[in-house]
Here is the input.
Amino acid sequence: MAEGMKREFSATARNLRMSARKARLVMDAVRGRNTDEAMVLLQFVNRRAAPAIRKLIQSAVANAEEYGNRNGIDIETDNLVVAEARVDEGPRMKRWRPRSRGMANPFTRYTCHMHVTVAEPEFLEEKAKGKPAFRKRRQRLSREQRLIKTGRMQAPVEQAAPKAEVKAEAAPKAEKKPAKKAEAKPEKKAEKKSEKKPAKKTEKKAEKKSETKSAKKSDKKK
Here is the structure.
């Protein structure tokens, strides 16, 4: 197929009077299947959304056939695959149901939008090759960072010092303070001990000597 030609074709049905949650059950059964196989399957699905989805797939295939006829391209509609099939919620309508004694109960009518895309299997294989298996989440920027990135704001010249430098500056101060306390306390304690202990020992020794002398004198007198 020539370059620049369309290789996937879509069809959309909007404001269908059914719940999106119930229609998704049928869409999940069709996604990834061959178009012919999907239409045969939908004939035997006992769901309200099945006929609408079947008509939508037929419309997408007809769009592909019409595009090929208009541009002189031979598109094999038998090989087309349902590449994308999704159901979105439509507008909700509020209604009232009459009840006894003049009362009324509210209820909601749900609507949905259906989207189907069909494509050739070769095109889907080529498309899947360039797609990464896992994509990292985009990092959210602050308002200032976005303005700087788009050029609507100048980057600040003076920036705060990093945490590592702040810690390195604070570390010497923390080391000096304990060193002073550690040096001062032992000296004071040593001085106090040297002042107190010798005085007590000398007093005790003097008392013992006086007691021994008095005891000896008393023995001699006897």
Notes: The two ends are 142 Å apart (CA to CA). Residues 182-222 form one domain.
